[in-house]
Amino acid sequence: MSEGTGRGSTSAARARLLDTATRIFYAEGIHSVGVDRIIAEAQVTRATLYRHFTGKEELVLAYLDQADRGIRAGIEAARAGEGSAADAVRAVARFITGGIQSPGFRGCAFLNAAAEYADAAHPIHQAVLAHRQWFLETVTELLAQVGDEPAEGAGRHLVMLRDGAMAAGCLSDPKPIAETFLLGVEGILRTRGA
């Protein structure tokens, strides 16, 4: 397997490793996939894997970091240009339903990882909690701009609706799941006076 010797080819090898791990971890789960398979499918050497990642755990953390950055960017893009906070909440909800209805959807990468790493002290579980805290704070901040009542309960409600939609969206037809999620978000907004 030739990986080149220049800096660009090293970055390309790291990207192949992460892209391969992301695809397989999301589709099949984290514990069920060994590093040998990732190495083979990414077409790199074991030395290349360990040059970029100290081991599987660091590769999983990179996978979750990439997912986190993608979700943050998607939510920021959804919010951008919306005329009101309520419309921004709706745009975030549509972003979520777009994911649920995408080909190959297999639930929330973070909820899936938490199920495999239940120890709250484990770094992977901590990465999941950090992402979820960010999401809760983001939607709570948006909902605080809709209505005068404290928004913490509404934020938790939206996160719970999202979690349910993520779980149900990979178990049955995602279209009615997405529609139900959007109706739930509208209910939250109505309660807040939007």
Automatic annotation (TrEMBL):
Pfam families: TetR_N. Residues 34-53 bind DNA. Coiled coil: none annotated. SUPFAM superfamilies: Homeodomain-like, Tetracyclin repressor-like, C-terminal domain. InterPro entries: Homeodomain-like_sf (IPR009057), HTH_TetR (IPR001647), Tet_transcr_reg_TetR-rel_C_sf (IPR036271). Residues 11-71 form the HTH tetR-type domain. The keyword Oxidoreductase does not apply. Keywords: DNA-binding, Transcription, Transcription regulation. PANTHER family: HTH-TYPE TRANSCRIPTIONAL REGULATOR LMRA, TRANSCRIPTIONAL REGULATORY PROTEIN. This is TetR family transcriptional regulator. It comes from Streptomyces rubiginosohelvolus.
